[in-house]
Design goal:
Blueprint (H helix, E strand, L loop, with lengths): L16 H17 L2 H26 L5 H22 L4 H13 L7 H28 L4 H15 L5 H28 L3 H17 L5 H9 L10 H31 L15 H6 L2
Length: about 290
């Protein structure tokens, strides 16, 4: 333990950045140690909650024409989904883009097959969870015409880049970097808080900016698009996957892994508790990297 570390101040209501990185390292390691089935279930839950967040963002902003209140309400609606994810322990693809790099950067081994498999399970689980909620919402008949008109407004904003050709594809990628930079910071703020309300506000602030800026978050876009699964909107699935989801996912990896995890890990490397540093790897991980 570093001598200048202030880890045990009793009246402090938040964790220091170095402690947050320690938590990310421990959470990244713990996520790899659960079974593949558990990883899938938790990822499925996160995808479901993100679809509810998309639902909330549309419901709260319907028929609001003034940009400021519209962006605020849609951000609050989406933050509900993220709060459900963070507080339930579900696994979100864009969140593990922060957790896993934090774990990897403190390890003397590089990315293993186990890490890559976890990333894949999480991505598929998120997509299937969002699709499941979208299917149920459509089959329930609970949503009226006004809702789908409001949803179309969001979809048109998300898919506007497709009309810009190759440059539009890269714009989605750059937008994806910004999106998960913000969502990564939401994870930092939520982890820093020591009570539920603090965590919710920590999530809320970056999510409002991300939603207002129309930044491209892969799993959030899964949520929006999945609600259209039976509605036959003008955008096809191949357009969504090739021109939006893929570049957004690449950008999200960069935004969370480099601009949040890597920068914070190196900035506070000297303050991280030596006991948390991964000097000795799990034998299975060692074997996989040989």
């Amino acid at each position: 333990m570093k001598k200048n570390r202030k880890a045990d101040v009793p009246d402090r209501q938040y964790f220091f950045p170095a402690q947050i990185i320690e938590y990310f390292i421990e959470e990244g390691k713990a996520a790899l140690q659960i079974t593949n089935l558990a990883q899938f279930i938790l990822s499925f839950m996160a995808g479901s909650f993100i679809a509810f967040g998309a639902l909330g963002s549309v419901l709260l902003s319907m028929e609001v024409d003034t940009p400021g209140p519209f962006n605020l309400l849609s951000g609050v609606g989406f933050a509900i989904g993220y709060a459900m994810i963070f507080l339930s322990g579900s696994i979100l693809f864009t969140e593990i883009n922060v957790l896993l790099p934090s774990y990897i950067l403190q390890s003397k081994y590089w990315i293993s097959k186990k890490v890559l498999r976890f990333w894949g399970i999480c991505y598929i689980g998120n997509f299937l969870g969002a699709l499941f909620v979208g299917l149920l919402l459509n089959l329930s008949g609970s949503l009226d015409k006004e809702f789908y008109e409001g949803l179309l407004k969001f979809m048109e904003k998300k898919m506007a880049f497709t009309d810009r050709g190759t440059w539009g594809w890269f714009q989605v990628l750059f937008s994806g970097i910004l999106a998960n930079w913000l969502i990564g910071i939401a994870a930092v703020l939520a982890t820093a808080a020591r009570d539920v309300m603090g965590k919710i506000f920590g999530i809320l602030l970056p999510v409002i900016i991300f939603e207002a800026g129309n930044f491209q978050h892969a799993v959030a876009n899964m949520g929006y698009f999945s609600i259209t699964v039976l509605e036959g909107f003008k955008y096809s699935w191949w357009e969504f996957i090739l021109l939006n989801l893929i570049p957004a996912s690449i950008g999200n990896l960069i935004g969370g892994g480099i601009l949040v995890s890597l920068l914070l890990s190196f900035a506070f490397k000297e303050d991280i508790d030596e006991d948390v540093l991964l000097e000795e790897e799990d034998e299975n991980l060692i074997k996989e990297n040989k």
